[in-house]
Amino acid sequence: MVTLSGPEEAALAAIDEAADGLRALSLDIHSHPELGYEEVRAHGVLSEFLEGAGFSVERSAHGLETSFRAVSGSGGAVVAALCEYDALPALGHACGHNLIAAAGVAVGLGLRAGLEASGEAGTVLVLGAPAEERGGAGKVRLIEAGAFEGLDAAVMLHPGMGDHVRGSSLAHRGLEVVFRGRASHAAGAPWMGVNALDAMVLGFASLGLLRQQLHPTHRVHGVITHGGDSPNIIPERTEARLLVRAPTREEVDVLRGRVLACFSGAAEQSGCELEATWAEFPYENLVQNGSLADAYAEQFEVLGGEMQPPRMGGSTDMGNVSQVLPGLHPHFRIPSEGGNHTRPFTDAAATAEAHEAMLRAAKALCLASLRVYSDADFRSEVRRGFEEPGGVE
Ligand SMILES: [Zn+2]
Ligand SMILES: [Zn+2]
User: Fold this and answer.
1) Which end of the chain is more exposed for a tag (fewer CB within 10 A), N or C?
2) How far is the CA of 316 from the centre of ligand 1 (A)?
3) Is the pTM for the entire model greater than 0.90?
4) Which residues of the chain have pLDDT under 50?
């Protein structure tokens, strides 16, 4: 039997007391899906909720309209609990970021209550991190704006198909491809045209062939966002958006050359002009802080959960955060017929079971984070793990 300290008990009680309010908050965000940098409603309801809970909230923080910075306490150690709240086009909250938002608030409320009960100095941040999906790189902009300076750790949770804390994420770089040809009448004078759709089809066909030669952990995928204007006109302009992913940024950089060759070859074959633009901000792979991960896993199991082996999933700009300060980004399982970015997952993200799973994970993350304030040895262990190569995984 594990006995909790007074501050730990106060932290868990605060999360339990807020459970219904957090559920309402999560469902509000879920039923009003907003894309990255357009999360105006989520930004509003989260800011209001945190103000109501006694945080002092700066809206549109760090130069981003839909970011917020909620602060409680002062001095001492500083831990930031991150909220994401952007949705996906067509599918709504198919990545469950409504649960991430509620989890970030839950961790913040718990830490605030725990610190108050301990009477120690400490600063709790709840940071609104917009635009994680689709290479939006909200957290990279927050890093550049100094949002993470002076912090001891940044933590967040993500719903998925398993309960794990040691998994990394793929680095990635976005690519926008535009082909320019020449329009002509598709029946009257097709020989006068230069077909930009041919170029795009050739590019994607080459990518398909390239895939056989890729390492199993590498991913290249994309969509054609403009394929022409009318069937009776030889397309003069086509556009696509792609993501190139691999376990590290170095591998992504090697892969980028091979992907680009598919499209430059297609330009050559079709006689089109190619304009290829790489995304301004690459996503780095996630480095889970070892000490925080162990503390989380321990608390998660005390709370009745069972940790599972890590899975490789997608990419996250939390990867970038985890490379500039100690970070933790555990996944918690919500019951769903399909994984992230599927319609069943959108439905699952609104269920009572998902909410309960989120609350348990938030409690574990809160107790693990509380140690950063209360235990100076643990705090320096977390720092060491971040600074020493091999001290993290
Ligand atoms: Zn996602
Ligand atoms: Zn996500």
Assistant:
1) N
2) 8
3) yes
4) 391-393
